[in-house]
Amino acid sequence: MNSLREKYTLVIGLEVHAQLLTKSKIYNSDANAFGSDPNTNLGVITLAHPGTLPKLNKKAVEFAIKMGLASHCEISRFNIFDRKNYFYPDLPKGYQLTQDRTPICKGGYITVTVKEGDRDVKLNRIHIEEDAGKSIHLEGERDTLVDFNRAGVPLIEIVTEPDIRTSEEAGALLSEVRKMVRYLDICDGNMEEGSLRCDANVSVMLKGATQYGKKVEIKNMNSIRNVQRAIEHEFDRQISLLERGESVVSETRTFDANDGKTYGMRTKEELNDYRYFPDPDLSPMEVSDAWLKEIQDTMPELPRALAKKYTNEYQLPEYDALVLTDSKDVAQYFEAICGRTKNYKAASNWVMGPVKSYLKELSLTADEFPVGPAIIAEMIELIDGGKISYTIASQQIFTELLKNPNKTAFEVAQQLNVIQDSNQDSLMPIINEVIKEFPLKVEEYKHGKKGIIAMFMGEVMKRSKGKADPKVANELLTKKLKEV
Amino acid sequence: MRTYATFREIQHDLQRGALTCQDLVRHHLSNIEKKSHLNAFLSVFPEEALERASLIDQKIKNGTAGKLAGLVVGIKDVLAYTGHPLQASSKILNGFISQFNATAVQRLLDADAIIIGRQNCDEFAMGSSNESSAFGPVLNDADNTRVPGGSSGGSAVAVQADLCQISLGSDTGGSVRQPAAFCGLVGLKPTYSRISRYGLIAYGSSFDCIGIFAKCVEDVAVVLEVIAGADDEDSTVSRLPVPQYAEELSRTLSKSYKVAYVREIDDAEGLQPEIRDAIQRKLDHIKNAGHSVDVIDFPLQEYVLPTYYILATAEASSNLSRYDGVRYGYRSPQTTDLQSLYKKSRSEGFGKEVQKRILLGTFVLSASYYDAYYTKAQKVRRLIREKTKDILKQYDFIVMPITPTTAFKIGTHTDNPLEMYLADLFSVQANVAGVPAIAVPCGEDKLGLPIGLQVIADDFQESKLLHFSDALTKMN
């Protein structure tokens, strides 16, 4: 199969739905909350009672514009909402309010990082729409249950051009989108709970061909990994079909995570004519210059820009920049440390090391980390100033601070009696003592066995109860050894 | 108790203690009972209305009563009223009770009006004769063998037969003005967006207007100023301030107005000669009163009706999708699976006229015909609106008939529904253009059936429109 893959180009377009974190629904004031009891977040508008009208939640529009600005899109100033008509029990009005002809964001791109480097994936559009309720088919039950809590929850749909060529790129795009929506604070990005959903349009064509093959739409992939698995499977399946002289049927397929395969769904959906037309109940919405400016002014720094800052300005390795910007809370924590110390690499090491492993162990976010960034910065300064050693700081002081987060690092160091001694007057007697006690070793050192200095250092550290500043002690020791 | 011609007289008598709200409610309740054969009301709220009346009587004594204290109102069965049945005269909403008040209803209640019942109409406001109601036709009180017009037939007859003082109806293509004309009443369709549509069951959303039936222009004015205006629940409603229409009526009509009369209408096929004559006489009165009348051309006249039927049914096909038997209303007991739930519930729940319009609307929106019908009709609508506005830039009013004939016999158009659609020929222009229009009585035909005259004004010119119409009703 791998050699056959060489013959073909894989063409992928993604449609990513992100549930927006607004407090209320998109067209009424019912609560937008995940995990409420079924059919509790609903009023007459959600239920499409006769006589009800939608009213637009401006926050949802603002969120969509943020994603558009972050993705270099053109923002539509004049927005019309369209009705997409179809019958389904979880769709109360019998139509979904969406944007067909005038998406709020047009064009744009999202930069992703893959093995070969960075590349820009072109977007077709980002539009606003409402979610449907949830149909629940219980095993062995004849009836279908419907929960309307989700009906009317605001969504944005990010539609890429058929511009993706590998499942790796598809995965990279999804994780970039997830990172972006989290940085923008517009969606929690949780694919398992369905707040971020992805459909993939996949087709293949012979290498060098200019005409795309027939595309298949794959649904029901609830993780980035599964999106990639589904694409991989579909790549091979479509190649096999073509190699056997058959053709790919344009259809909707569902992904089964258990066997990693895709299965055709009823093709009926293909025949659906959604009869889109502008919704006469929602007046067209204009995005004014002032409003757009206001949104632009509140845009946070985005992960890619931050990572660039870390490598260029802070001189951090790319790996560090990537890890630190992976989630907004960690990046913010790191930034806060960097506001108080210029030793950025040390700050990075602290965050990537002890801080992150603690967060991981307890499944916390950086906002919930008990020790403030100022204290970490203080520790870095203490280490750099030779007052404490990194080992002592990371093993003893850090542990103690987690228990007493209100203390300063210096207070804890004092309490533990681990402030380093860099005072020559107090170190010299210890060094003299050690040299006197091991004359044979001194001889060995003088005859070229320089490694033996580690033994002397060990003794000095032992006798100073670990408080000797290793750098100073080493200097003094070397000097003294030359003299004797 | 005597029948009052105007709400002002009622208020006068209430204020001086010669009348109570309870008297008024009892009077109308007894008329409703006496005239129950007219089939104007689907539900009457006697205890509730009397209770409210006694409360408002007390308020009047205390001097704390609202602007509409003592106004007994009937509402068309397309307006939501909390805790009361609401079903657009359709079986598909069997058993449905509204959980909120329409904004217009809320404003009436806040001003201390009394709602006496919900009124029969054509199913989902689709019809021109009130014959498409699931609850049977409404009879014209002037001649019980004839229709009252539609779709707000019950609302018109209720005022005509003094079953209430005023009614709220809805006007999508003439559904207030046409029955007003058939029943000899004043009926206003305000500018589109002047009154919030929140709580009005949608038929053709971009045409739908709540309208007012009354015995005189003055009553229309006082109700309009209460129910019109901005509303957070309707994003399409106008935020323009609402004038004090009633107060402005009392100013003397000093201006000389320019009135246009459309030549194409005079030549329209099927226009009853007595209506043409009555209007000509009225135009003479207008001239005699010092206003000018010009005959003008409106070559788009023949496109008005098709444009309306394409766009209104397109919107209706989507607006009525929510009646699916899933969450409320009628569900067919024959349901076996999801498809049959939809098909059977909707086929059994909707009447023929509604089904016909849903099918028509679905067709014009379908992918293969969208541009040929829907897109083209939108373009023609814009032309009609522009042309109408052009005329209204040069003239204060356009005057025309409302209906080609006076009230016809029940069953006349049963076999030829297209003929029925022609009944809307003159009334839909105002809806297509979105401008305000009013029906005022203009004499009777040989059989003594009322003739109505229509006056159309420019957007948000209700004040001027009411003022002029009021003068018209007094010109003889």
From TrEMBL, chain A:
Catalytic activity entry: L-aspartyl-tRNA(Asn) + L-glutamine + ATP + H2O = L-asparaginyl-tRNA(Asn) + L-glutamate + ADP + phosphate + 2 H(+); L-glutamyl-tRNA(Gln) + L-glutamine + ATP + H2O = L-glutaminyl-tRNA(Gln) + L-glutamate + ADP + phosphate + H(+)
Record-annotated Asn/Gln amidotransferase domain positions: 332-481
Enzyme class: ligase
UniProt-listed Enzyme Commission number(s): 6.3.5.-
Signal sequence, start to end: none
GO molecular-function terms, A-Z: asparaginyl-tRNA synthase (glutamine-hydrolyzing) activity; ATP binding; glutaminyl-tRNA synthase (glutamine-hydrolyzing) activity; transferase activity
InterPro entries registered for this protein in UniProt: Asn/Gln-tRNA_amidoTrfase_suB/E (IPR017959), Asn/Gln-tRNA_Trfase_suB/E_cat (IPR006075), Asn/Gln_amidotransferase (IPR018027), Asn/Gln_tRNA_amidoTrase-B-like (IPR003789), GatB (IPR004413), GatB_C_1 (IPR042114), GatB_Yqey_C_2 (IPR023168), Gln-tRNA_amidoTrfase_suB_CS (IPR017958)
Key words of the record: ATP-binding, Ligase, Nucleotide-binding, Protein biosynthesis, Transferase
GO biological process terms on file: glutaminyl-tRNAGln biosynthesis via transamidation; translation
A UniProt-annotated Pfam family: GatB_N
Assembly, per entry: Heterotrimer of A, B and C subunits.
Protein's job: Allows the formation of correctly charged Asn-tRNA(Asn) or Gln-tRNA(Gln) through the transamidation of misacylated Asp-tRNA(Asn) or Glu-tRNA(Gln) in organisms which lack either or both of asparaginyl-tRNA or glutaminyl-tRNA synthetases. The reaction takes place in the presence of glutamine and ATP through an activated phospho-Asp-tRNA(Asn) or phospho-Glu-tRNA(Gln).
Family: Belongs to the GatB/GatE family. GatB subfamily.
Protein name (Swiss-Prot/TrEMBL): Aspartyl/glutamyl-tRNA(Asn/Gln) amidotransferase subunit B
Organism classification: Bacteria, Pseudomonadati, Bacteroidota, Cytophagia, Cytophagales
Gene: gatB
Automatic annotation (TrEMBL), chain B:
The organism's place on the tree of life at top rank: Bacteria
Catalytic-site annotation from UniProt: 76, 151, 175
Annotated InterPro entries: Amidase, Amidase_dom, AS_sf, GatA
Pfam families: Amidase
Entry keyword set: ATP-binding, Ligase, Nucleotide-binding, Protein biosynthesis, Transferase
GO CC annotations on file: glutamyl-tRNA(Gln) amidotransferase complex
Record-annotated Amidase domain positions: 23-466
EC annotation from Swiss-Prot or TrEMBL: 6.3.5.7
Catalytic function, reaction form: L-glutamyl-tRNA(Gln) + L-glutamine + ATP + H2O = L-glutaminyl-tRNA(Gln) + L-glutamate + ADP + phosphate + H(+)
Class of the enzyme per the UniProt entry, highest EC level: ligase
Family classification: Belongs to the amidase family. GatA subfamily.
Name recorded for this polypeptide: Glutamyl-tRNA(Gln) amidotransferase subunit A
Species per Swiss-Prot/TrEMBL record: Pseudochryseolinea flava
